[in-house]
C-alpha cells in the first residue's frame, strides 16, 4: 500500500497546475525562473503555510470506503495542490526576498518515533541562505514521500490517533502557525467533526467536540437549524485567541448523509468559530470532500491571491 500511496501522491504533486511556469534555472536578476503567465500575489510577500492533519479513522478505507477515491488519497492530492502553490510562489521571488515556510502538524503527536521523523521532514524553511534550484525541486518529492509514510503507517497499523483540533487552536496555533512578517495560512484536513477525549467540555450551547449524531441531538436537522443555532447559542467553545489577519482553509468536510442540512450546519459552526477568533469571513474557505482535480484551482487561488 505504501508504494501505491507514494506513486499517487508524487503524480499529484507533479501534475500541471493552474499556474503554468517555465523551466527552473536562476535568471540573471537573481530570481528562480519559474514565472507564471500571470502573477497573483506580490512576490515580496512571505508565505507561512501550516497544514494540520486530522489523523482519525475518517481516513480508514475499511470504515469509510469511497469507490471513487479514498479519503486519504484526497488528502494527499490536496496537499499536492498546496505544495505546488508554495513552490510556485517561492519561484517568483528574488533570492534576497525569500523567507517562506511550509509546515505540517499532527496533534496530539503520535508515540511512534517514525512519524515524528516524517513530520520533521515536512518542516520547510526557505531563505536566501538555504534556497537553491535543487532544494526547490526536492520539496514536492520530500512531501510526497514523508506524507505517504504517515498515512500508510496509520492505515496499515489500523492505529488512528485522532486530532485534538480544538486544543491545537487553543494552545498551539499562535506559536506554531503565525509570523509577524508573513501571510499566515492554516490548512485543516478533516471531515468536519471535532472530537478528542481530552477536549470534551461544554458550557451552555458551546462544545469542544461534535460527532456525527450531535446535530440530530440538538435538533439541527431541520430547515430552521439556523434559527435554533442562533437562539440557543450553539457552536464550538471559544479559544480566546486572536487570529486576525490569518487565512483558514478547511478541506474534506464529509457531512452525515442522514441529515440533509448537515453540510450547512458544519460550515456555520466552523465559520462562527473562526470569526470569533478574529478571522475575516472573506479569509475563510471551507470545502466539502471532493476530488483533488476539482479543488486544485480553488486551493491555489486561495493561497496565492
Could you walk me through the main structural features you see in this protein, from its secondary elements to its overall organization?
The chain is α/β, with parallel strands linked by helices and about 300 residues long. It is about 40% helix and about 15% strand. The strands form two sheets. It has a six-stranded mixed beta sheet with strand order 3-2-1-4-8-9, with helices on both faces. The chain has a three-stranded mixed beta sheet with strand order 5-6-7. α1 (about 1-15) packs antiparallel against α4 (about 135-155), α2 (about 70-90) packs parallel to α10 (about 290-305) and α3 runs antiparallel to α4. The two termini are about 35 Å apart. The model is unreliable at about 5-40 (pLDDT under 50). It comes from Phaeocystidibacter marisrubri. This is VWA domain-containing protein.
What is the total domain count? 1
| Sheet with the most strands: spatial strand order | 3-2-1-4-8-9
Beta-strand fraction estimate: 5-15%
In which range does the helix fraction lie? Answer: 25-40%
Q: What is the number of beta strands?
A: 9
Radius of gyration over alpha carbons?
19 Å
Roughly how many Å apart are the termini? 36 Å
Mean pLDDT, to the nearest integer, reads 89
Protein name: VWA domain-containing protein
Organism: Phaeocystidibacter marisrubri
